[in-house]
Amino acid sequence: MIDNRRARFVVMLYLDRPAWPSRGRLWSHLISDVSYAELHAFAEALGAPRRGFDRDHYDIPAERFAMAVWLGARVVPSRELVRLLRGADLRRPKHLFRPAPPPLTPVDHAVVVPGVTS
Fold it and tell me: Where is the DUF4031 domain positioned along the sequence (predicted)?
C-alpha cells in the first residue's frame, strides 16, 4: 500500500545497517514481519532485483540503504531481524531450505554398458 501524499509505503519493513561484505560491497538485509508478498512489493518499489531474495530476506546493497529508509523501512539491529522473522513464522534457515533438484535430462537416464559405444 502506498501513501500517495508522500510516495512512501505505509507498511512496516525492517532493515539492518549495511555491514555484510560480499563481492566488494557492503549489504543490508530487508525483511517483512507480515508476508513475503509485502516484502517483494517493497523490494520492487526499491528497485531491488528478485535475484536479491534469499530464502526470507532481500540482500540490499549499501547504495540503496537510504532509499529503503526513505520508503519507510525501519532500521533495527541484525538480531532483531531474526527475532521478527521467527515471531512471524517467516524464518527459513539455510539448513532447512533446500532448493528442488534440477529436472532430469535424457543423459541422466542413459545406461552405460562397458565396451559398447553409440
Answer: 14-86
Say if residues 58 and 39 touch (Cβ distance below 8 Å): yes
Buried b (16+ CB within 10 A) or exposed e, 10-30: ebebbbbebeeeeeeeebbbb
Neighbours of 43 (CB within 10 A): 22
CB burial of residue 39 (10 Å; 0-12, 13-18, 19+): buried
DSSP string, 3-48: ETTTTEE-S-EEE--S-EEETTEEEEEEEESS-HHHHHHHHHHHT-
pTM of the entire structure? 0.69
